[in-house]
Amino acid sequence: MCLINFCFQAYAPYKLVIAANRDEFFNRPTQKAHYWEETPSVLAGRDLEKMGTWLGITKTGRFAALTNFRDPSEKTEGKRSRGEIVQAFLTGTEPPEVFMDELREQKDSYPGFNLLAGTADELWYYNNRKDLKEAVAPGVHSLSNATLNTPWPKSRKGKAYLEECLHHSPALSVDCLFSFLQDEELAPDEELPRTGVSLDWERKLSPLFIRSEDYGTRSSTVVTIDQTNHVTFTERSYLQGNLVGEEAFQFKIESI
Q1: Which of 180, 225, 209 has the alpha carbon at shortest distance from 43?
Q2: Which pTM does this prediction carry?
Q3: Could you tell me if 89 and 95 are in contact, meaning their C-beta atoms sit under 8 angstroms apart?
Q4: Domain range holding 126?
Q5: Which of 84, 181, 204, 208 is the most buried (most CB within 10 A)?
Q6: What ranges make up the beta strands (E) of 106-211?
Q7: The domain that contains 14 carries what CATH number?
């Protein structure tokens, strides 16, 4: 993922609302969201190059999502795939804080990442480059390729859009969430972060929805978990900005 906007324990009808975009090169093979054959409890898309994932949930309510930490100077050769982290949490049983503590011991084995992991009742955040671990506070948050709630233009905009969808409609609309995830407006140059990529790339990466010839938003995912633990999971897939598919799932979280 490259942008995760979410509301945790701060909107009465829902425990957790997530609206996220995954940006990736178009030539990287990807499998759409599905229940994994070898682990039927896991609902997630799949990166077919490394066989990990970027966002998923299980029938027992374990949720995880990951973004890269942008640092073009970082050496990634010989390091493990970040997608295996999300997979490990979804297929494991450790409480989220314990999982994070174990992950910290291997933090240098992976390129820079941000991880959200937990449930709709207990959510944790970890960044391996800064070695930041914290319980997520109730509220509306946004996570891009810096740290949690770093006010990059796309993060500020994502939070504002999410708050509008939550509080200015009579009922939460999935279409409202997907609509703002398609915002392609570039940020003004003076507001762009300086992360070490070229100015041209900072511009290209600044919208919520990225469209370019070789790289861009591959999928948008909306997840809601209400107070009765009913889950809706909808993924829309894109190729060079064009909608090419939608997958939708609903289930009730199983008691362990």
Answers
A1: 225
A2: 0.96
A3: no
A4: 3-252
A5: 208
A6: 113-118, 123-127, 132-135, 139-143
A7: 3.60.60.10
Task: Report the number of distinct structural domains present in the chain.
Answer: 1
CA distance 217 to 212: 9
- Rounded CA-CA distance 187/154 in Å is 8
For helices 83-91 and 96-104, what crossing angle results, to 10°? 140
Return the beta strands (E) in the chain as ranges: 3-11, 14-25, 30-35, 42-47, 55-58, 63-68, 113-118, 123-127, 132-135, 139-143, 215-226, 230-239, 242-252
Provide the b/e sequence for 150-167 (b: ≥16 CB within 10 Å).
Answer: eebbbbbbbbebbbebbe
Encoded tokens for 167: 């509080």
Q: What kind and span of H or E run contains 109?
A: none
The residue among 28, 27, 101, 18 whose CA lies nearest residue 66 is 18
For residue range 54-101, list pLDDT tens digits in order: 999 999 999 999 999 999 999 999 999 999 999 999 999 999 999 999
Q: How many of the other CB atoms lie within 10 Å of CB of 93?
A: 10
Q: 247, 234, 201, 240: which is closest to 218 by C-alpha?
A: 240
* CA pair distance 232, 57, nearest whole angstrom: 10
Closest CA relative to residue 6, chosen from 193, 159, 118: 159
What would the pLDDT profile of 189-215 be if each residue is shown by its tens digit?
Answer: 999 999 999 999 999 999 999 999 899
> What is the rounded CA–CA span in Å between residue 38 and residue 24?
25
> Rounded to whole angstroms, how far apart are CA atoms 24 and 125?
22
